[in-house]
Design a protein that fits this description.
- Chains A, B, C, D: This is Amidophosphoribosyltransferase.
- Chains A, B, C, D: One of its GO terms (molecular function) is amidophosphoribosyltransferase activity.
- 4 copies of one chain form a homotetramer.
- Chain A is an alpha+beta fold and 474 residues long.
- The first copy, chain A, has 2 domains: 240 residues, Glutamine Phosphoribosylpyrophosphate, subunit 1, domain 1, CATH 3.60.20.10; 213 residues, Rossmann fold.
- Helix content of chain A is 27%, strand content 24%.
- Chain A contains 15 helices and 23 strands.
- In chain A, helix 12 links the parallel strand 20 and strand 21.
- In chain A, helix 8 crosses helix 9.
- Chain A is globular.
- The interface between A and B is large, with 64 and 64 residues.
Chain lengths: 474, 474, 474, 474
């Protein structure tokens, strides 16, 4: 489904590098590969061992680093981020990496995830006199580190601070002499370690390794703190590993088809989901089409298994960008439509299987079904390559609140009716877990199913902010 | 194949509208659908019957009309263009529509194509004292119209001027009281007429009609001049129709899969080309993959006919835009690659059929074959859904000169060797014509095959400029 | 008086150079010295003998040439302009120098003045098929040159074209092999010739020579065409000299105090006007103050002659620029005032002589008198260092139409009453001519007095446009 | 002397307002009047009682608030600043007002001056875990306030924090319910209180009151904290007043001629300095000229007292702005000069008295003397309206270090020799104090003479940063 058409957004993608003389350039290319994880801000911070240099701004990677600005960043270590932001988290001051300069040791941080006890921790710190610069939950970690007793080593201060955080977090941190990497105890957000020649790299997705020619080494483990400096790499735990619970939506929707998470390729996992659906439901149809871009893999799988030809029944308008002027209600009623066009000669007079990755509010699904029927489709069978979404996410995915989710209190048939489809099929949680096929033998195969089941792998606090409610401080 | 990776570029896309109170807004949405035809400039000119208003600039449609600028354009008639420009044709003054204000009648023009006797006509006009504002061959038409004897009606002056032009041209022209549309005698460039409620619309591709909810009426005929004003629509010929010769590359590469040209859907035509290839050559392979975006349809067709599974073996990096900083030679050697990533888990250990739409210089094909092999492909069989390119185009396609075309003086096996493929197959011109299946019974089924055969449907002058040589006046 | 406060604006300043390897850089510095003559656009065109390079845009010189853009301009010949534009002449296409590229010989032009038969000439040319690019009267000359019979030499074509122009004009023109300079037959606009080492330079004001270290040689003569190329300098007449009629307002208001016009220093001329006033009227007062910046010289003269101390009674707010947000009517009523501040401790309780250079509509004079009285001045005696303005200017000065001029149908005492002054004194035309002291023995000492007397030195046509009416073509 | 020509810069100007519905607009106009105190950044923060709104950026006031951005700021209370910044203090994050959002009470601050124990305080706070956002000494006050014991009232926390600061400071602070104003115990920087209708205003200079139509009430007293809220105005001391020590350079150079400091008008004070010089030294000369802009008043005074005519001998090029491209060394040698032009007809063959306000490094004085002699002056007598500068300033004036000051280890005659003058006269400290004429009867008439004498009115710490050394944290 189209990210622009619904409130389902990833918070961001992070990258880190240590030991490469072109740290900024490598980070820049890596951010391009991660751009699909956040299009509203980008930044790179590098160090050459003496101080930091930073470029960050709102906008796409290409916009933020336009001109020759990148050449100003000289260093062998760096961290970088692309960022999606909810309405209240906008503003240049919230663009990451955050950089905290101090006579007692400067530090820069970038983060993917959501800390569920951030409001509590912030209020505690402010009562003690701390002054925050941003609305970001990321900043809490910096203050916790600085507040730790001065008698501890920096490593112990970082571990102590990390152990106070609850929720989903993949952190990359940069000091003048080290790159630090941390993953929350449940491993809710993907984070992979790689090597580029002698340099170490870390990224939210492995597609960033391919673009820079790096080799994948392993995933960062839940509860692990990795410290890389000129002496080498060091790993230890800041918390015991809890039940592994990788975000299911990474496989379903967020990650790029060419990325692997814990050894499983995204395109292949999605294709298996599509095949499984074709085995579970028999549809008498003429063509299979996927909603671009994230549903293409499942549609190919459905076509291959069912023997129904795969066609380009829907075309995405690639040039509808952030500054696109939406048609007025009046113009929409006059027929102006954007972002998706049906291919009339493909669907006219045909029974169409329309494969999508998920349904959030249902309004987009309804619009696409209508588009296809207006273009002449005689039947539209909607096939969803994941289970119904029924609960909000507190771990960094900007899903709507449950009252907005079409599936929360409705039967499959009621949803089908609402979106105007001739049939509607979801994948069950069990079938999805089997199709994705994570090797884990733990609960839920090590996947977080909270948005499908309402069972959260961590505590949730009364003041845990949903992403779009994050800003509480005026 | 990727437009960014080679010198194969369409000159532009045009749009026109008459009789709709939101002429500028409708043009804006239509330009989005045509954006793939030109990404270097965009413009809209509208009239409300008294004077003209214009917004145009270098950049993408979204950039040119950012902010609320569009609301400044009020009128019921308009013309618009998106533009690709060769090195010498850059500069804001060359962005179209061109607008010529005059006390004897103002006129605005936009153009798709290339006038092969433009240099000759321009020199003739300049010797008579005309002063040109641009390097564009489009401006020649304006001067020819203004120079015609004052005793003729405007319609006759336009006809007389059009009859002096040789080459490929699809013109949209706007005066304060009419929209005029003209197609060259060979019909080299696509141009379709449609209706949007009571308003008339015209566009280079029918995908522009789908986005605005307009209905396709018919193609503009070779040698036809259409004049639309408040009294209605009027058609006549400014020249007898010559042999119809629609550009083959529109079917092969340029047009959007959801467009139809003369009743033939582009996606379906390409898919038939892919199927035909699968019938003509038997390859023992494990997966079929297409080079995104324009080869996907042919790859799907090849897969369907051959029974070899279709996979996403190559991912396009969608965020590598115009301002992307290319990696230095040194970084490229260190493994940094952009724009296309192979999906290792899809191709590793597999025999891969790589379907592409065409080969120009061969450097990109070689790069992609290498990418796939480095990702573990054991064999790479390259299948091209068109014949070898051997001659330059004088009609508006920025193909390299023949000395740069890899196929000009080489056998198929020499090309295969150069690009490192295990096998290489082209479609023959005849098989391509049959697969596309134009209804015409004239020579070449009404398609221009000049770039494949060197036989040009019009005269070519000694000073006819190739697109990248256009600017001769200092 | 303050230019920003009234409709009294110079059209522009021009500069030209031939034979200096840093032609663009020298032009850039010269434009700074001429910036007071036009703040709405700036441009430089250079030639290295093969083609032209141009940078021009709306904005101040500093803005137009920001960054390192200037380094792109390489050449030994150049022309440049700073520009004031009336409402209808806005737009980047009207910024000069204009550049006309042609296979029959390219030419670039910049102009200071106003051609009074421009509308007539343009209509004539358009009827013959010429297409104009701008609203500028400057473009008429380019078309006239191009239209001249091809059998003439370029020099003769330029002379013939110049001879068809009526009005005020100082032209600098650049071809690939020469710099051409022309002055209208009355010499209405200042234009001086100088030398910078071996290079020739020409400028609207001599202050441009001081800044670049050039030596003043002589004024360009009325009706003279100067052609400078690599062979040397050549002068001839394109028209017999008419009565010399240098614009009086150049001495009174426009020119910089450090410029000389025909050997007379502007500061000294204004000071003599102030002294003359002090001899003509005896005022019993405590302090003399001038309205910054153009009246300071006259105020110093008045003080020196009268013995009344000169003080800074009014301060100009230098940072109120083009983008300044004017206070709303409501805020103005609450006391917000800009641009000029009275110095309370200087004028409080004092009888003040307020010297100004001229009065146009009178609204500003009234405002300043009010400011001074609110700051405690017990009496305000207004002394104007020029005669009353009663007629519009057709030669390039954007004076209001005569119905707006406060002096057109009013007695001195009525004006005094309207502006709230305790007394009001003007300089008579004769006293002004004597004080300025031009050496000419011709009529009016070779000065144009049209705005003071309504007697114009050239024909005026029924369709001669005032500067603010210039754009007649839609 | 020209600010651009030397390292003598004021740190900034501040403004505050409470109780006016157009707080942002009024602040905008006031900043224009204060623009001469800082041209590198500007900002306004307003509150409507619930939260804050802020606009700030690098650039001039006109640039920062271009467009309609100002209309977004709604509130009845506001603070504002214009800023000069030393090399290390650049960057948008250092532009003031600073804004610290907190759940325990947000606060915004703007500051003029230099806190001499800032480094010490910052290190102390960082050791306790505080994280700083800027390099600014201003931020220290915010952290001190937040760190104070939670049992104190806000007023007491502010007083306690202020009492820990040493040095020169004029603070304006804004909370959601009050405007707070504080002046250091020596009153080193000017700060005046005024009324605008029912609203209270405060500004670094009284010229800001004139522009907005406000009435001057009194100066803020040394060691005073003023709190203004909806209940009214409240004043108390946070420290006992020390010896009053207003910065002498405010009178000599920084402040605008139309401002009053402690009841003394700047123009009149400078004019008295000029008159005093004319009484102290008898020069046989033909003309007096001042170096624009700050020396004009003293030159007028010298002329009036000596009877030697005052002339415009030097013209400032007003359009040489921040983005001006400096001529290369080569071009300078060819005669290109900027910023100041001598008026040849005024000085040629004359004995010239050149009045300037001060001499810092002497290079500019030398250049001006040379300019005048090249323009024909037979003698140049330099008269300086202040004593020789011999010591650096730690209170916010960016004077060079003492090793760069021409007067540190040289006799008057050695300086005269170096700058090439025929004679050189300074004002003695005593004569300057008498001429300025502050009413105070305390030491030095309540003026700080540190830069003339090396005697500092406060402690100076070993790590007190000079303005250009401010940034010590990497």
């Amino acid at each position: 489904m189209l990210a622009e058409l619904r409130g389902l957004n990833e918070e961001c993608g992070v990258f880190g590098i240590w030991g490469h003389e072109d740290a900024a350039q490598i980070s820049y290319y890596a951010l391009h590969a991660l751009q699909h994880r956040g299009q509203e801000g980008a930044g790179i911070v590098v160090t050459n061992g003496e101080g930091f240099q930073v470029i960050k701004d709102e906008g796409l990677v290409n916009e933020v680093f336009a001109g020759n600005r990148l050449n100003d960043l000289k260093g062998h270590g760096g961290i970088a981020q692309v960022r999606y932001s909810s309405e209240n988290g906008r503003g240049i001051e919230n663009v990451q990496p955050l950089l905290f300069r101090s006579t007692t040791g400067s530090i820069s941080l970038a983060h993917n995830g959501n800390i569920v006890n951030a409001v509590e921790l912030r209020e505690h710190l402010e009562r003690q006199g701390s002054i925050f610069q941003t609305n970001s939950d990321t900043e809490v970690l910096a203050h916790l580190i600085k507040r730790s007793s001065g008698s501890l080593t920096q490593r112990d201060r970082v571990k102590k601070a990390l152990s106070m955080l609850k929720g989903a977090f993949a952190f990359v941190m940069l000091t003048e002499d080290s790159l630090m990497i941390a993953q929350d105890p449940n491993g809710l957000r993907p984070l992979s370690l790689g090597k580029l020649g002698d340099a170490w790299v870390v990224a939210s997705e492995t597609c960033a390794f391919d673009i820079i020619g790096a080799e994948h080494v392993r995933s960062v483990e839940p509860g692990e703190l990795i410290i890389i400096n000129n002496k080498g790499i060091h790993s230890e735990r800041f918390a015991p590993a809890a039940d592994s619970a990788m975000c299911s939506m990474e496989y379903v929707y967020f990650a790029r088809p060419d990325s692997d998470i814990d050894g499983i390729n995204i395109h292949m996992a999605r294709k298996r989901c599509g095949k499984r659906l074709a085995r579970e439901v028999k549809i008498d149809a003429d063509v299979v089409t996927g909603v671009p871009d994230s549903s293409i893999s499942a549609a190919i799988g459905f076509s291959e298994e069912s023997g129904i030809p795969y066609e380009l029944g829907l075309i995405k308008n690639r040039y509808v960008g952030r500054t696109f002027i939406e048609p007025s209600q009046e113009l929409r009623e006059k027929g102006v439509k954007m972002k998706l066009s049906p291919v009339r000669q493909v669907v006219n007079g045909k029974r169409v299987v329309m494969v999508d990755d998920s349904i959030v509010r249902g309004t987009t699904s309804k619009r696409i079904v209508t588009l296809l029927k207006e273009a002449g489709a005689t039947e539209v069978h909607v096939v969803i390559a994941s289970p119904p979404l029924v609960s909000p996410c507190f771990y960094g995915v900007d899903i709507s609140t449950d009252s907005e989710l079409i599936a929360t209190n409705r039967s499959i048939d009621e949803i089908r009716e609402l979106i105007g489809a001739d049939s509607l099929t979801f994948l069950s949680p069990e079938a999805m877990l089997e199709s994705i096929g994570r090797p884990d033998t733990t609960k839920n195969c090590g996947q977080c199913l909270a948005c499908f089941t309402g069972e959260y792998p961590t505590d949730i606090y009364s003041d845990t902010a949903l992403p779009h409610e994050k800003e509480r401080v005026r």
